[in-house]
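Input (structure):
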């Protein structure tokens, strides 16, 4: 609880003066005012979050949190549970989608076992922070105890604190956990009170009858557990997941350390939602990487007040969208840092 309370007490709204300073600097660059569109927003927000107009490093890291889900026993995914472990090995071998896209933007992928139902021993490259061997079946009772949820949140906070020490410029979220779109839909349903059918989609690609069953399972989970939307840790513990908790902690920890955090798709946004329900100023520190195909994602983004950077019809997770968006945020910040001003380039200014 100590790490969580410390992080919550450190989070402050970003300084609007920094936003204005960054925009003034952008407005002196050799271009019509505002002509670089959202790249200017990324630069402005990055500067205000991190407190610097000229970052000296571009070190980027994506945390891919892996965990299993007891609710898989209810037939909510198109894939078997074993795929979680198999994909962890794929990440470590560098062969997964997130590895390819992270390499493309020169980001590092760090894989965190926060709750996989497998003993990895001391597998090289894997960050072992296992809180439990998966969650319990949330359709029958709480997925986690409150203590487990807090411990998993604190894993994410600790990793964010480590980023601060390492001088990381930007962190990204990612996840792997067969079944994890189910707790993600349950979380957004618990916070918003919207109907489960409007928030639940096909995840890995389930058919119509499996989708109907998934809706029923989530409705049952909410009825059995009665998560309290005013108590985000209660929601997380009862109908969440260990990787979702790790992501929520990472997002909180990044906000506490003034590190811009790029939130991936549906499952990652469920984690960010938990973080923002714990502290509303968290919203100011995150970038929503992309609009996921999952139908509940737009509702999550709306509650976060976040405008997704990309819409590429993606629905993979792992941190794939975060990787791509990081490249664009970095491009915006490079405009702020590297582009010539009218004065430097001897270009005449316009009159508006
Ligand atoms: C091979 C494979 C790689 C993945 N990488 C991410 N996911 C994504 O799909 C899962 C969520 O969907 P559901 O709730 O339907 O199980 C998560 O593991 C998520 O990261 C994958 C899924 C599969 C099958
Ligand atoms: O949007 C995502 O991140 C997503 C959607 C479906 C399955 N896995 C991930």
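Output (sequence):
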């Amino acid at each position: 609880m100590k790490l969580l309370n410390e992080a919550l007490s450190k989070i402050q709204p970003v300084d609007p003066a920094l936003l204005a300073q960054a925009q003034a600097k952008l407005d002196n660059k050799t271009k019509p005012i505002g002509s670089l569109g959202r790249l200017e927003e990324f630069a402005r927000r990055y500067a205000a979050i991190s407190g610097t107009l000229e970052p000296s490093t571009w070190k980027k890291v994506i945390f891919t949190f892996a965990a299993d889900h007891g609710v898989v026993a209810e037939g909510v995914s198109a894939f078997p549970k074993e795929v979680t472990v198999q994909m962890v090995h794929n990440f470590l071998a560098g062969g997964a989608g997130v590895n390819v896209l992270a390499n493309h933007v020169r980001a590092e992928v760090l894989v965190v076992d926060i709750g996989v139902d497998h003993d990895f021993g001391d597998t090289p490259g894997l960050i072992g922070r296992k809180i439990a061997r998966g969650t319990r079946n949330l359709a029958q009772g709480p997925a986690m105890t409150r203590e487990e949820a807090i411990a998993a949140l604190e894993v994410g906070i600790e990793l964010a604190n480590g980023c601060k020490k390492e001088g990381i410029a930007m962190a990204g979220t990612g996840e792997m956990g067969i079944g994890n779109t189910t707790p993600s839909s349950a979380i957004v349903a618990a916070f918003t009170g919207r109907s489960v059918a409007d928030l639940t989609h096909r995840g890995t690609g389930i058919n119509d009858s499996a989708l109907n069953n998934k809706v029923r399972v989530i409705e049952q989970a909410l009825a059995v557990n009665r998560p309290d939307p005013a108590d985000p840790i209660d929601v997380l513990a009862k109908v969440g997941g260990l990787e979702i908790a790790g992501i929520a902690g990472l997002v909180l920890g990044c906000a506490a350390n003034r590190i811009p955090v790029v939130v991936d798709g549906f499952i990652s946004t469920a984690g960010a939602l938990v973080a923002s329900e714990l502290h509303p100023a968290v919203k100011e520190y995150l970038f929503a990487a992309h609009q996921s195909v999952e139908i509940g994602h737009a509702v999550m983004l709306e509650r976060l007040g976040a405008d997704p950077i990309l819409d590429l019809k993606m629905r993979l997770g792992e941190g794939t969208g975060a990787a791509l968006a990081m490249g664009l945020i970095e491009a915006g910040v490079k405009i702020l840092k590297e582009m010539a001003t009218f004065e430097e380039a001897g270009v005449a200014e316009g009159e508006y």
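Notes: The beta strands are 60-67, 107-115, 126-128, 170-176, 261-263, 286-288. The first helix runs from residue 2 to 10.
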